[in-house]
Amino acid sequence: MKNVEIFDLYDLLMEQLRDLYDGEQQQLEILPKLDELADSFELEEIVEYHRKETIRQKDRLEKIFRLLKEEPEGESCDGIKGLIRETLKLARRCKNPEVRDASIITSLQHINHYEMAGYGTAIAYAKQLNRHDLAELLLETLREEKASDMGLSEIAENHINPDAKWSFIVEKAGKEKV
Ligand SMILES: [Fe+2]
């Protein structure tokens, strides 16, 4: 299935859908790990919510594949793979829990934006191919991704970033005393 040649917009839509499907699956593997790395209760809650939402989004894609009578597997999403690698690398380099939480939020937002681009593209292709039924389903997920991005911005600006800023000041003050 991998490296199937692409000839038309339908093929490109399939490529995009399989890419999104693999991306959602990869996130299901990484989210429990991020839950363990998260320090604040608010972030743990948001990661758990994100995990449940990702299951729904994966199911929605499976429904789309059933409607198209196509197989969901076959594409590995190197974009999400790279973003997940960056997420873990960055989180492990953060020495304060509050700063690590801020890093997890930005990483989740990077993933969100990558997905928004993918779902937006898939919607445009589905509409072009007169599959408005599929476009509707994809739009539900795009709306969720956008809402989740806004939720992450909100918790970052109101809770996590102020705490991370404080933790930096405490660290600096500690070093100055030595
Ligand atoms: Fe998603």
UniProtKB/TrEMBL annotation:
Classification via Pfam families: DUF892 (PF05974)
Domain of life from the UniProt record: Bacteria
Record Gene3D superfamilies: 1.20.1260.10
SUPFAM superfamilies: Ferritin-like
Protein name listed in UniProt: DUF892 family protein
Species assigned in the record: Halalkalibaculum roseum
